[in-house]
Amino acid sequence: MTQSSLRPIALTSGDPAGVGPEITRAAWSALKDELSFFVIGDPRHFPSAIEISAPAEAPAAMADGVPLLPLSFAAPVIPGQPDHANAAGVIASIEQSVAFAKNGSASAVCTNPISKQVLIEGAGFPHPGHTEFLAELGGVDRSVMMLTAPELSVVPVTIHIPLEQVKTALTAALLEDTIRITRAALIRDFGLTAPRIAIAGLNPHAGEGGVMGREEITLIEPVLQKLRAEGMEITAPLPADTMFHPAARASYDVAVCMYHDQALIPIKTLNFSAGVNVTLGLPFIRTSPDHGTAFGIAGQSIADATSLIEALRRARDMAQARALYDAEH
Question: Per the similarity annotation, which family is this (predicted)?
């Protein structure tokens, strides 16, 4: 699968009052000779963009500016001042991007940051965030969040819940499902034939033989034994405080962690700027920069576009890997 044979990536508008428009232009400047994408949004929100009428026109338009498939929003934009009137447009941009990915017009979906508060208050958005909405659009019951950077890839089993709820939410079924979805994606979308999966323990020192908690013995290890019997390469539950140094990271392809901060603190410490959010388990590829709308700096031309640039590159690489895998299977 060559770059020239790939369909362009569909990039959503995100909240246009955030940094989305400026990092989109910066990403175009960095990637215009490397890959093709198009943004779905209002021309008023993306000054100097090149309007196109179909995704197929994006590769040719990349030479002149950000290719933009017009989508009318209700209101103009003042950077840093989100307008609830534009919530429906933000949602429509996501829906259109997914439709293009599902019908083959786009090779992947990359999403600019949204404000859940704006979407809830402006359009009654019923989802906790992007990931759950995309799972609904993709027709799947569950998807998995991965954060990936050159130094490390992590998957949290439980995500945006209070720490006191983790012990109840962490079940054998959830852990098994997360590992299966993660491994399948590493094979199909990352080109790994035999993924090496490291598992973090829930408790300090991975429970230290039951002295500091027994979840590793009673819940986690039985799941891992079942999956190892199927041929998966999976570690025993590891102490989280010793599994992220360089030598440890070299021994695995992804770390599956039990809760949000256990996964995200190490990756954001290692590479705060270049981390990419990837949703696994969808029938289409989706990536996103690993940051929010940054209303406080929007319109000041100081936003760092590195994460969006890497998200677009990751989307391209995953699309190539999936196309090659599907052709061979």
Answer: Belongs to the PdxA family.
